Amino acid sequence: MPMKLTPLNITLACVLVWVISEMNLDTEMTFSWGWLITLCVILSLIDLGFRMIFKDLKKLWFAQIAFILVVGILMVVIRVL
Hints:
Layout: H1 7-23, H2 33-53, H3 57-80
Helix pairs in contact: 1-2, 2-3
């Protein structure tokens, strides 16, 4: 069964592209390779968990988009405080 495209997969791809594009700059990387691998594993496990909970692809998309929005808002709030 082929892997279905989900918002968390898209997010992971964007993070990887961002890190790869940052590698060629003379500045320091935002986070280390260890943290990048940890982030990839965590996002993959969360994606797998959502896939196990939500069998319907439409519900899966809504749940993952909501998760990404909540995490993003929490990151901004924590950063501001």
